[in-house]
Prior knowledge:
434 Repressor (Amino-terminal Domain); 0% strand; mainly alpha
Amino acid sequence: xxxxxxxxxxxxxxxxxxxxxxxxxxxxxxxxxxxxxxxxxxxxxxxxxxxxxxxxxxxxxxxxxx
Length: 66
């Protein structure tokens, strides 16, 4: 699974819009959109924030993304 696929799956699992997910992890809507469309590689800090969000929502992070 790619990072972009994982972001999409987490967002859909939690029934969030891109804007809602962006607000939850303190990034812009366009950032989420670029992640999901694989247009940009997120910074390490952004990835950590996203993974922390996942852990707080009891979503397991695939081993191939760690």
